[in-house]
Amino acid sequence: MIGLALVLLTPLAGAAVLAGIADYRASARVNIAASAIAFAGALLLLAHRPAPGRFLLVDDLNVVFILLGTFVATTTSVFSAGYIGHELDTGHLTPGYLRFYHAMFQLMMFGMNLALLANDIGVMWVAVELATLSTVVMVGIYRTPAALEAAWKYFILGSVGIALALFGTILVYLAARPEVGEGLRAMEWTVLLRHARGFDHRLLDVAFIFLLLGYGTKVGLAPMHAWLPDAHAEGPTPISAVLSGLLLNVALYALLRFKLLLAACPGAIAPGPLMVTLGLISVIFAAFMLYRRRDIKRLFAYSSIEHMGIIVFSFGMGGALGNFAGLLQMTMHSLTKSAIFFSVGHVAQVKGTQRIEAIGGLTETHPLLGWALLGGVAAIAGLPPFGVFTAEFLVLSSTFARQPALAVALGLGLLVAFGALLARGTELAFGPPRGATGPVRASYWPIAAHLGLVLVAGIWLPGPLVAWFRHVAAMLG
Amino acid sequence: MSHFAFDVAHMLAGLIVLGSLTMLYQDRLTALINVLAGQSLLLAASVAWQGHLQGSAELYATAALALVFKAIAIPWALRALVVRLGLHREIETVAGIGLTMLAGMGLIALSMEVMLPVTGAAGPVARQDIALALSVVLIGLLIMVTRRNAASQVVGFLSIDNGISLAATGARGMPLVVEISVAFSVLVACIVIGIFLFRIRERFDTVDLGALDASRGERAR
Lengths: 477, 221
Fold this sequence. Notes:
The complex is a heterodimer of chains A (477) and B (221). Chain A has helices at 2-18, 24-47, 60-89, 95-117, 121-139, 145-180, 189-195, 201-219, 227-234, 237-263, 271-289, 296-317, 319-351, 362-365, 367-381, 387-402, 404-429, 444-459, 463-476. Chain A has a domain at 271-477. Chain A contains 19 helices and no strands. Chain A is globular, with a radius of gyration of 21 Å. Chain A has 477 residues and is mostly helical. Chain B has 221 residues and is an all-alpha fold. Helices cover 80% and strands 0% of the residues of chain B. Chain B has helices at residues 3-24, 29-54, 57-84, 97-118, 124-146, 150-170, 176-204, 209-214. At the A-B interface, helix 5, helix 6 and helix 8 of A face helix 4, helix 5, helix 6 and helix 7 of B.
């Protein structure tokens, strides 16, 4: 119970406290502390799991997401402390907006943690909505025309997506009602799963289409991805990091839960092929889009679409190996992508621009930052010995064994993306220095922690972790 | 259930769909908002009727919420915003009314075709409500994609929300969670929207999204 309280109540209390702190240094520290306490709570949950309650549920599946989420949030808050100091110095943000920013950061964390822990499909929906709205206002915080357009697009597409998801949620309730009875019980995950056998499968089929479109919009699957690059590029970089590292995962988690529900109901459509199709479209589309990017944050936003595509593809393929690969890929992507956004944030601050053509020769002018960025790019492109390579290799090889044609298509997408990322990465890191070469006040340890974990995972996966992921993979069916 | 009770429920839901169709061809923002208010009023009536049929006090509360927020407060706030921004005199060109209406009717047919066969076990009222609610949601999406103006897109979104509320109340015994969340989301939406409209206005001197599109994509910074 303490774990649950720490994970849920700390962000909520943090948001309230941070809304009242005017000094930005103090509030950055409080932000770090609140995120770290939530992470400690997640560790407690890992050690000791409370029994599922009426509204909250802790099981092997969501512990993975909670742990990953609170960890990335903690490192992001450390990165953010350095990042916002610079934004304040350059006048991009005012102290008033920073207060708002910190409060919203914790509110978003509360929304995400609640969505992951909810045992009620209605509560989960409200929590995802809360997390979405708090990120919308953070994306628009710079108030430039581009930031406003990005926030508006995100708001409209996100709301429509979340509305479709609610419609799907209502249909799930309708399907459950004759079997479970009226009231709250017909919205509880644990109850739903137990009784899914007797649900009307045709109603569940229609419900899943809405849920896939709705939550899929939030995952950033093509063709519902239009909000994602803008929101990543125009908001503050710490927000880009949590969007890619956490919020997309939360929506993915919702999809996985509903996939489990459909799997438990005989006669329902198999969600796998739908997910595989959307995932594959996202991978191939994003891979080609990577070539035309001129903005560094947009580049990595499209890479996020590509990776979410791989992950959804992998979960769609399912089976012990497919689910295992999907979990691993999701973890690796969250860690790597947020590390990349940390370095990109510092780079953009030093250069005063996000245009790729105005950034170059980073390894010469800022060796540590340049190599960190290059390491991140190599990892995300899928080069060994990083963990992303292991995960992508698993996805490909397990697909080859079952559907060679799909594996070829996926492999093609991966190769195309690989080429684009490496070309851009070397352009940024090597060659004659371009743009401003001022000194950088970067916080390196969040980047080091993330890339270090990804590197270790690529070389050696600890036994208990493998056993744990295997167990979750088996649970996902 | 008596024939009369069913007919009233059916008629109210049908009128809500009619409201959506009416929205499709409004070329003035104030008129569009008025139709939205009317639709929300019908929604409140429909929810109250459901409360009467199901003997549920909770649904009466939901109906009151819908009446106060959706039919009165939100349209009032939107109208004030529109007048303040001087948009009430502007005429919005809605492209191809005939075609849009045809598309709207096609969407209604589609939702009947999709929902009626699969909701057999849900009871006659819920069955009709869900099918009609889906058409309200789809027409709301259509309104959003055929409009260029930020304010009318918001109206489209709010009508989608009306459709979802209709579905939620049709689902017998659905806990208040959803109704609260609907009211909550509409409220939050309005706050966000209010801020945005002012900010967009501040930046561009217009709320025509065409002006936003000009700044799209990847530009020098």
